[in-house]
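We treat protein structure as text, and this decision shapes the records that our systems exchange. The tokens are whole numbers drawn from a learned vocabulary of local backbone shapes. One such record is reproduced below, unchanged from the form in which we store it:
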Amino acid sequence: MLESGEYATIAELAEREVIAPSYMTRVLRLTLLAPEIVEAILDGKQGPEVTLVRVLEPFPLSWSDQKDTFSGR
């Protein structure tokens, strides 16, 4: 909806979804997760360190650093 221009800002989209803009920002960051991590989550094969609470916290943008972060190292 942001990409298509239906909503110009995260705040507008958050209002439409009836959630706090800060939460919307954290959820949108999930689009930056490495495809390998997303696939593991969708397949139910992620490790115990990959929890919703953990992925909503700041994480590295580099996919290789994400792998290290979410591998329990």
